[in-house]
């Protein structure tokens, strides 16, 4: 599948506009994520771009490297170490690493997108989809005016498919505004969750929908984020 590079670049530009006027006080304020300031979210988005660029640069040479040599501990340490940057420093670093990522992607040919990477034991194309999710979901977490109803329809639909494994087997998810339905696994039909495509994506991502999805009884409890490597799920 051809990855949505142009759509992710558009998300990057939206993110840059969103943080263009941030001051140091706003960066230090709490984000929507428990225990994280806006600075933590920006640090994560910045280093996520650096990490994906690293994977891309090596993949294009036919090399497999870890996203983080030190695993999740290294990832968390980088976020903690850089969250306290000034607003200007955050903007500069985000712009630099975003540009580096886009430059790496620009070197990829159609056949390169299938090159393997260690991220989720997937391929280079999967990192583009992941960055798409990261950019839009964390823009909501910054609490600077972007809401789930600002998400592109196709990004929201992709996110639903990615997060289906958070639901019990047999659950069906129906986005009535776009006429699409997803089914979790091969079990007998279970709960049907109905809503708008963006609201369903936000709910599955653990964010607050603009309009909460509904089910005949109560909404099913969400399980953990998709495991590594991800499970294979079917979409109707």
TrEMBL record:
Designated name of the protein: Mycothiol-dependent maleylpyruvate isomerase metal-binding domain-containing protein
GO MF term list: metal ion binding
InterPro entries: DinB/YfiT-like (IPR034660), Maleyloyr_isom (IPR017517), MDMPI_metal-binding (IPR024344), SCP2_sterol-bd_dom_sf (IPR036527)
Lineage: Bacteria, Bacillati, Actinomycetota, Actinomycetes, Kitasatosporales
Domain Mycothiol-dependent maleylpyruvate isomerase metal-binding: 10-143
Pfam families with a match to the protein in the record: MDMPI_N
């Amino acid at each position: 599948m051809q990855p949505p590079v142009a759509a992710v670049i558009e998300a990057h530009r939206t993110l840059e506009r969103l943080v263009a006027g941030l001051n140091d006080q706003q960066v230090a304020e709490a984000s929507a994520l428990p225990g994280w300031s806006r600075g933590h979210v920006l640090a994560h988005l910045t280093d996520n771009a650096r990490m994906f660029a690293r994977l891309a640069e090596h993949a294009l040479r036919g090399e497999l490297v870890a996203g983080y040599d030190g695993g999740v501990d290294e990832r968390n340490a980088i976020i903690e170490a850089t969250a306290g940057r000034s607003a200007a420093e955050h903007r500069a670093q985000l712009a630099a690493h975003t540009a580096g990522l886009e430059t790496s992607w620009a070197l990829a040919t159609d056949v390169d997108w299938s090159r393997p990477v260690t991220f989720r034991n997937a391929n280079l194309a999967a990192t583009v989809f992941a960055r798409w999710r990261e950019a839009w979901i964390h823009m909501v977490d910054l609490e600077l005016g972007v809401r789930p109803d600002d998400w592109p329809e196709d990004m929201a639909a992709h996110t639903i498919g990615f997060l289906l494994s958070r639901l019990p087997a047999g659950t069906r998810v129906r986005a009535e505004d776009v006429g699409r339905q997803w089914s979790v696994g091969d079990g007998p039909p279970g709960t049907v969750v109905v809503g708008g495509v963006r609201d369903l994506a936000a709910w599955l991502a653990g964010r607050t929908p603009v309009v909460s999805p509904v089910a005949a009884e109560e909404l099913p409890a969400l399980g953990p984020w998709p495991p590594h490597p991800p499970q294979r799920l079917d979409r109707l």
